[in-house]
Every structure is written in structure tokens, then in C-alpha cells.
Amino acid sequence: MMDNRARDEAAQWFVRLQDGELSASERQRFEAWRNEHPDHPYEFDVLQGMWSATDLLPKARLQALCDGPAERPKRQAVLRYAVAASVVAAALGLGLFSGLDHPEPCSAEFSTRVGEHRQVALPDGSVLDLNSRSVVAVHYEKDLRGVELKQGEAMFSVAHDTRRPFVVDAGAGQVTVTGTRFDVRRDDDQTRVMVEAGTVKVQGHSVDNVVTLTAGLGTQVDSKGRVAAAYDVNTEELTAWRNGKLVFNNASLSEVVREVSRYREQPLRVGTPAVGRLRLTSVFKSDDTDALLKALPHILPVALRTLPDGSQEIISR
Asked: What is the spatial distance between Cα 278 and Cα 66, in angstroms, rounded to a whole number?
């Protein structure tokens, strides 16, 4: 029941936003609705993805979705179709565009700069949220939706399509789904996967080394392609970057430095292993990491030192 109601409400809000700018009170109600249930932002983002993806689709495919054979497909016609589908069919999450018998191949690459977040709508209605310093390459084929996470982190909201699995390659690890919400982060020494909704399969180098994750679970794949056993994760903390926040809950200073460095032009370092083992619990803005560095000496027994190359190092005080 929640799915149908969420789709209906998402469609209503989507049309309202297309009609014009919301008033302050309407904007507050919209944000309250988005935060009311995890399904709400997902359903709205899928609709938004479908809308934006019309610009990426070949003209012939758009005409197959619209009411008339106009020379240039009208976005309003696609909107009417999307809203109708969201209200009367539970299949919005099945992916409107992937419903065509012969989906066209699609290849593209997307990236973000330091401190930049970017949302990308794909032709099947899936949505990618890219974190700072991230690069993804998209390769859609007739029977497979493929994405390579070359570096960084991405949150995937995947439109359901049992005929075309959605596969993410991230170094030594591979994630396979048909429709779900999950986050993949690729570092030099490991790949981390966590699931917000649905089910994913994470595979390492060996076909026998597969771990299944459901909502609230995560795993890691090391540089040798070994997948760790599933473990509980706090999805809100791990995806706080989507709201411009860095959340650290008893994190080691080494972990903090790795995360903060993704949002700075110059890397941040810890001076010694002992300093790296210090623990931090706090919340900071990802677009103001200087504030974090200024606060550190007041929270932990450390000091900051600027190195000749302009980078900074955290040392014991």
C-alpha cells in the first residue's frame, strides 16, 4: 500500500513543481513529505529521472512513449505518461524506458570535481548521485545495464527490470541488482557496498565468493577481490554526504582524514599511527572542511602542521 500511495503523492508533487515555483509554506510541506518515509524521495527521484532522461533518449524511442508522432517529442506528453503510470501502475519502479522491446545502447561518462555533488538520470529511470571526486562510466546494452565506478562514491537508485540486470563494477568487486537503492564507494585498497533498500549481490574475483545484502547491511571487497561477510551499517550516516554532511561516529582519525581529503584540493595526513588511532564523534559540513580542522585541536590532543607542498598533517600535541 505504501508503494502505491508514495507513487501517487510523488506524482502530485512532481506536477506541482513543474507548474511553477513553490511558495515558502509549500516548500516546507514538500520537504516534510520527502522526509516522512524513505520511499518518498525514492519515488520522486525516479519520476525526476524519467523526466530528465528524455533528453538522453533517441527520438524514435521518445515517440514510442508519447501520445502523438510529433517531430520533436513534447516533454509534457512524457510527463502525462509518467504521472499516469505512477498512479495506476505499480510498475513505475519497473522502469518506463526499459519496457520497450529493443532498448537502444547507451554509453556515457560522468564525473564530479572536488566538493561537487551531482545527480544523473539514466534512460531507464535509474538515478545516480555522485559524491565528490567521483567518476562513473555507463554502458547500457540490450540485455545488461552496466556501470563502472572508476573512482569515488555513488548512490544508486535503480529502476526495477528483471530482464536487464544492473551491474556495477568497482575494481575488485561487482554488484548485481534488478532494482534497489545502494551505495558503492571505491578506495585504493577496498570497495565498500551498503544497501538502503532491496537486495544486492556482491561478488569478488571468485564466482564462489558472493555475499547477498539486504537493507541495512554492508560489506567490503579488498584489493585481492575477497568479499567480507555482511555486517550491519547505519545507512543514514554513510549517505549523509547527499545532504552535505560528514558524520563520524567513533571513527578513527585515519578514517576521518581519508574522508575529509575527498573534499579538499590538498590531501590531509596523520603524522603517526598513534594519532591515526584517536577516535572522533561529530558532524561537520562537507563544504567547510576548514571548520573541521579548526575544531580538531579543541576536541583531540592534536595540532595541525602545513607541509611545504601545501598539504596539512595532523600531529600529536
From this structure: 58
| One-character DSSP codes across 41-94 | HHHHHHHHHHHHHTTTS-HHHHHHHSSS--SS--HHHHHHHHHHHHHH-GGGGG
pTM score = 0.68
Strand, helix or coil at 217? strand
Helix (H) or strand (E) holding 295: helix 289-299
The x, y and z cell numbers of residue 221, run together, are 571487497
Handedness of CA 186, 189, 194, 198 (dihedral sign): positive
Pair type for strands 210-214 and 127-130? unpaired
Q: What share of the chain is helix, strand, coil (3-state, %, to 5)?
A: 35, 35, 35
**Residues in the chain, total:** 317
Domain residue spans of the chain: 2-99, 106-236, 244-316
Q: How far is CA 133 from CA 137, 165, 170, in A?
A: 14, 27, 15
CATH classification code of 244-316: 3.55.50.30
Query: Residue 152: beta bridge partners?
Result: 186
Name 242's bridge partners.
Answer: none
Give the architecture (CATH level 2) of 106-236: Sandwich (2.60)
Q: What is the pLDDT of residues 139-166, one digit of tens each?
A: 998 889 999 999 999 999 998 888 889 9
Q: How far apart are CA 194 and CA 197, in angstroms?
A: 9
